[in-house]
Amino acid sequence: MAVTSGVDHVGLAVRDLAITRDFFKDILGFNEVGGVPDYPAVFVSDGTVTITLWQTEEDPFAFDRMANIGLHHLALRVESMEKLQEIFRTLETTPDVLIECPPIPLASGGGAHFMSIEPGGIRIEFITHEG
Known about the structure:
By secondary structure, the protein is α/β, with parallel strands linked by helices. The protein has two helices and eight strands. The strands form two sheets. It has a four-stranded mixed β-sheet with strand order 1-4-3-2, with helices on one face. The longest helix has 12 residues, at 81-92. The N and C termini lie far apart (31 Å). 19% of the residues are buried. The model has no long low-confidence stretch (mean pLDDT 90).
């Protein structure tokens, strides 16, 4: 039996706190639920998961998923295929968002996902298990 009971929150170091905060709030509809201005950090939540965003102090290097240890990507679950397509269409036209791949079926069957990089450089996967 596991000694833990789920993820409490995810902490991400970001290159530009304001840009990434605004992406989560304005594009994804997250709420700002706190922060520590002197740190500086902002806490955002969709009501299920809370994400802590920390401002890096120096010009960060780009994450190389094949060479670096650390967060490969953040996967956010969406409720339906329709919602996945809606998010994809929104991000496709959002400035400074990179779409790595359009929605494709999950290898395990039933559902789909797509990969993107938000304007602050964090890789985000959007995924639904609805077939």
